[in-house]
Write a structure and sequence with these properties.
Blueprint lengths: L1 H10 L7 H24 L5 H16 L1 H4 L2 H6 L3 H16 L2 H22 L6 H71 L8 H19 L7 E3 H10 L5 E6 L3 E3 H22 L3 E9 L2 E8 L15 H11 L4 E8 L2 E8 L2
Parallel strand pairs: 2-4
Antiparallel strand pairs: 1-3, 4-5, 5-7, 6-7
Helix pairs in contact: 1-2, 1-6, 2-3, 3-6, 3-7, 6-7, 6-8, 7-8, 8-9, 8-11, 10-11, 11-12
């Protein structure tokens, strides 16, 4: 839209348009347009400072209309500045919440009206003001609906991810139970069968050693915690999570480790979100997943070499980084998370201490 406005301004530069005013104004506007294109190319969120700068430039253009716009364009309401006002109202509504977007939109509409009156005191500005108010109302209603839908979608995805991970954890629990049952069958039941068949007619050191081993296995089964505290192979679970990452080649270095089921679930949910963020936003197709244990602390790291992001600029209602990574791990007793991101990529570090 910025380049179109520049072309329209140049083509419409007839008296009383002043090139001394028009040229520097368009140069500043082109710089702002270039910054917008850079953000678009990098697929980043629009920074507030850039939108604020665009608003300031548009206000200046509005107030200087008597030097920038031909009278015919003012009379028909088809000036290039009017188009810029519309786009700036839309961008402000997309970037900011209602409490900021409303005064900004009203300020833009007022600046345009003042600029038209300065250029042509007899010109009627109320019709244009009405159009701008309708545009402002429409974009705010649309963004309110989109944000609510986005919040509902995030909540649904959060529950879906949690349910999927819970199923994986439960499956690993069942596999562990089956292994334990198989162990009992191959040890104590086998020993009792041999005794019942008369294989051992008198006490023997071999039988005594086998009974000790069988008793140890039974005591271990008795002491195995249930439900959320049941031990889960974290490396196996993370390997399965990495295998489900769409569009990513995940390089894994996983240390065999067992943790309680609820701890494994928290790690899996955070890693799932970290890998999803890489696939969607990092602009790369490779990631690294590492798990270690040091000094009694279990640590998991997810890293990429793609474009980073500023987590402090993320909207507060966005679920991903804040909800599924930081809050998930910090809600775990003795757990935590840290994210570092920059030009060299993003590194997500997760930890838990028993």
């Amino acid at each position: 839209m910025g380049s179109v406005a520049v072309i329209a301004a140049v083509l419409g530069a007839v008296p009383p348009v002043s090139m001394g005013w028009l040229a520097p104004m368009l140069a500043v506007h082109l710089v702002a347009t270039g910054l917008f294109l850079r953000v678009l190319w990098r697929k980043e969120l629009l920074p507030g400072w850039l939108v604020a700068g665009d608003v300031a430039i548009t206000v200046a253009l509005c107030l200087a209309q008597r030097h920038l716009v031909a009278e015919d364009a003012l009379d028909t309401g088809s000036s290039w500045v009017a188009g810029l006002v519309t786009m700036t109202i839309v961008v402000a509504g997309v970037t900011w919440r209602i409490k900021v977007a409303v005064p900004v939109g009203l300020g833009l509409a007022a600046a345009f009206a003042v600029g038209v009156r300065l250029a042509s005191p007899a010109h009627d500005v109320f019709g244009t003001l009405g159009i701008h108010l309708v545009q402002l109302t429409a974009i705010l209603l649309l963004m309110t609906l989109l944000r609510r839908s986005s919040a509902a979608t995030d909540a649904f995805l959060k529950e879906s991810a949690r349910a999927g991970i819970a199923l994986m954890v439960e499956r690993l629990r069942r596999e562990d139970e089956l292994r334990q049952v198989g162990s009992i069958h191959e040890t104590s039941l086998h020993t009792l069968t041999m005794v019942g068949l008369g294989t051992y007619e008198e006490p023997s050191p071999t039988l005594r050693a086998q009974v000790v081993t069988d008793l140890s296995a039974l005591e271990k089964l008795r002491d195995t915690p249930q439900a959320d505290s049941a031990l889960i192979a974290l490396d196996t679970l993370l390997d399965e999570v990495a295998g489900r990452a769409t569009g990513l080649d995940v390089h894994k270095r996983l240390t065999p480790e067992t943790v309680p089921g609820n701890v494994a679930e928290h790690f899996a949910r955070a890693v799932t979100e970290a890998l999803a963020n890489i696939a969607l936003h990092a602009g790369v197709r490779e990631a690294e997943l590492v798990s270690t244990r040091s000094g009694g602390e279990v640590r998991v790291e997810v890293a990429d070499s793609g474009r980073g992001f500023d987590q402090h600029r993320l909207p507060p209602d966005r679920f991903g980084v804040r909800g599924s990574i930081l809050d998930t791990m910090r809600s775990l007793p003795n757990g935590g998370a840290e994210i570092s991101s920059g030009a060299q990529g993003t590194r997500v570090q997760l930890w838990w201490r028993p």
